[in-house]
Automatic annotation (TrEMBL):
This is Chromo domain-containing protein. Pfam families: Chromo, SH3_Tf2-1. Signal peptide: none annotated. Residues 46-73 form a coiled coil. Residues 1-29 are annotated as: Disordered. GO terms for biological process: chromatin remodeling. It comes from Agaricus bisporus var. burnettii. GO terms for cellular component: nucleus.
């Protein structure tokens, strides 16, 4: 029944059901038949099947919504660019004439002008010849350029020297994930806005070991609590009472603090801001 419900549900990518894509029609189901019969058991079966189908569809939608919500947690606010915008280009994986190593290169260079909008995820830039890449780039590699106004804000922090090599100073660690067998961290760079946040492997963060440890301590406990709340039916932002929390988290009276969850949530929101 779960497989049938999935194949009979419109997919966001195609706007069609898998049944329609594969065979060109929707299947007939027992509860689609409107003919009246004389067998109560058959009618009862059709009603049960219809209810099961509706419940499965609802469960599938909830699963999709949950996956979308968790995926969106690691994404920043989407920036919509337009022709004429001034942007900065990330130097990661970029070879620049006169700067042979990335360690000695700014994190962003520019500003350059958006020449054409290719899609919501790609733009064409007006680049100089010294930038030897295709002018069409993914928007994940650019950030909006904002001219520095005297007396407003601060300039990006300069690179610091760690064991003879230059690295940019990390302000905070926002998230972590595994990518191709390596752990990567979402980094907020000191002196830069959220638009410049980037995923970095641990070897690029030699000057941020304490921040990484602090992140794991806070994130690990908060993530554990969220999973327990979710698995036991609590809403994501709902807090259990004292007796329930003691049972869920295995806390004794000395460990339990009625404000503990609220403190974690407040710290997490502050950390991510």
């Amino acid at each position: 029944m779960a497989e049938f419900s999935y194949n009979n549900k419109e997919q966001s990518s195609t706007k069609e059901t898998p049944f329609m894509v594969n065979v060109g029609r929707h299947p007939r189901t027992g509860f689609d038949l409107r003919r009246q019969g004389n067998h109560p058991a058959a009618a009862d079966f059709a009603d049960r099947m219809k209810l099961q189908h509706e419940e499965t569809q609802a469960a599938l939608k909830k699963a999709q919504d949950d996956m979308r919500r968790y995926a969106d947690r690691g994404r920043g606010e989407v920036v919509k660019y337009k022709v004429g915008d001034k942007i900065l280009l990330a130097t990661q994986d970029l070879q620049i004439q006169g700067r042979p190593t990335r360690k000695l290169t700014e994190k962003f260079i520019g500003p350059y002008t958006v020449k054409k909008i290719i899609s919501p995820n790609a733009v064409e830039l007006d680049l100089p010849r010294s930038i030897q890449i295709h002018p069409v780039v993914n928007v994940s590699r650019i950030v909006m350029y904002r001219e520095q106004v005297e007396g407003q804000g601060s300039k990006p922090a300069p690179a610091v020297e760690i064991e003879g090599e230059q690295e940019w100073e990390v302000e905070k660690i926002l998230n972590a994930k595994w990518f191709r067998g390596k752990k990567r961290y979402l980094v907020r760079w000191k002196g830069y806005t959220a638009e410049a946040d980037s995923w970095e492997p641990e070897e690029n963060l030699a000057n941020a070991k304490e921040l990484i440890t602090e992140f794991h301590q806070l994130y690990g406990e908060l993530n554990r609590i969220h999973h327990v709340l979710r698995d036991t039916g609590f809403q994501e932002r709902e807090l259990p009472n004292r007796s329930t929390a003691k049972t869920l988290f295995g806390w004794d009276d000395k460990q339990f603090d009625a404000e503990y969850l609220k403190k974690l949530e407040r710290n997490w929101r502050t950390w991510r801001s």
